[in-house]
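FAQ

Q: What does a record look like?
A: Structure on top, sequence underneath. For example:
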C-alpha cells in the first residue's frame, strides 16, 4: 500500500510540475482492433446508435487530410465506452486532484500516412483552453488514446513541459501549418524555455495533458495511418462563464444554461467520482 501511494504521489507531482503524463498501456490489442474497426464505421457514416456525431464531422467528400470528428461517442457504443472509461476518469482525478471527472467531449482523430509529403498535415501549436474559455477556470484535462504506435515519424503529439504555468498565450491555432513561424512569434515568459517533448507511445497507451499545456504535432510521413481518440475531460466543479470566445463552443449549446451553471447532466456523463 505504501509503494502504491508513493507512486501515485510521484505521478501527480510530475503532472503538477510538467503539465502532462504518459500512462502505461491501458488498452489491450483485442480492444484496439475493435476501436479501429468502429472508427472506420463512423467515418463511413455507419452510426450504430442512430445518432450522428456533432455537426461538421468528417465525410469522404472532404478528402484524405486530417480527419476530426467531435463527439463520436454519440454515434458509436465502442467509442462511447472508451470516452467514458472509469479507469481514464480515475487517472484524471488523480492528476487534477478532483473529486469527480466528467466527459467534456471527444475527438476522433485520423492522420493519414503520406510518405512523399514532408510538410503539411500538422496540428499547430495551441492550448486547449483557448477554445474552452466558456469554462470559468482551466479545470480541464485531455486523455489522448493511441490506437497505433506513435513517434515523430508519423506525427505524434509534442508537448511543451511546464507551459501550463504560463497562462493563456498568443499562440493558438489548431489548423496552422507553419509551426516554426508560430514558435518565433510566441510571447512566452522571459525565464521560460520552449523545448517540446515528443510523446512517443505504444498503441494502447494514454497521455494526459493540462488544458493550458502547449502542444501540437507534425506530419505523418509514414505509409500507415495515425489513429487516436482525444478524450477531453472536466472536473466536476467546472462552471460556465458567459461572454467569452468560448461561447461559440458546442458545449455551451449542450449545457443550455446560465452564467455560473455547472457543466453537468446527461450531455456531460460522469466517468469517476471519489467515494
Amino acid at each position: 500500500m505504501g509503494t502504491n501511494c508513493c507512486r501515485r504521489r510521484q505521478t501527480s507531482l510530475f503532472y503538477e510540475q510538467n503539465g502532462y503524463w504518459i500512462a502505461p498501456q491501458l488498452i489491450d490489442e483485442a480492444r484496439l482492433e475493435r476501436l479501429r474497426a468502429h472508427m472506420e464505421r463512423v467515418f463511413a457514416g455507419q452510426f450504430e446508435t442512430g445518432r450522428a456525431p456533432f455537426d461538421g464531422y468528417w465525410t469522404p467528400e472532404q478528402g484524405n487530410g486530417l480527419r476530426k470528428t467531435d463527439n463520436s461517442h454519440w454515434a458509436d457504443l465502442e467509442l462511447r465506452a472508451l470516452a467514458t472509461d472509469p479507469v481514464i476518469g480515475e487517472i484524471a482525478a488523480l492528476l487534477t486532484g478532483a473529486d469527480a471527472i466528467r466527459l467534456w467531449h471527444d475527438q476522433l482523430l485520423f492522420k493519414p500516412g503520406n510518405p512523399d509529403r514532408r510538410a503539411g498535415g500538422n496540428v499547430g501549436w495551441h492550448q486547449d483552453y483557448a477554445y474552452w474559455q466558456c469554462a470559468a477556470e482551466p479545470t480541464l484535462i485531455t486523455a489522448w488514446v493511441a490506437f497505433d504506435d506513435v513517434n515523430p515519424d508519423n506525427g505524434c503529439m509534442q508537448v511543451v513541459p511546464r507551459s501550463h504555468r504560463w497562462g493563456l498565450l498568443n499562440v493558438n491555432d489548431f489548423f496552422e501549418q507553419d509551426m516554426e513561424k508560430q514558435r518565433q512569434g510566441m510571447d512566452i515568459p522571459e525565464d521560460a524555455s520552449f523545448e517540446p517533448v515528443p510523446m512517443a507511445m505504444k498503441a494502447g497507451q494514454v497521455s494526459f495533458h493540462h488544458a493550458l499545456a502547449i502542444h501540437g504535432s507534425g506530419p505523418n510521413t509514414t505509409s500507415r495511418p495515425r489513429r487516436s481518440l482525444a478524450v477531453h475531460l472536466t472536473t466536476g466543479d467546472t462552471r460556465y462563464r458567459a461572454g467569452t470566445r468560448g461561447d461559440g463552443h458546442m458545449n455551451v449549446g449542450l449545457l443550455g444554461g446560465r452564467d455560473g451553471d455547472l457543466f453537468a447532466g446527461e450531455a456531460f456523463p460522469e466517468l469517476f467520482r471519489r467515494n
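Q: Is there anything notable about this one?
A: The longest strand covers residues 100-111.
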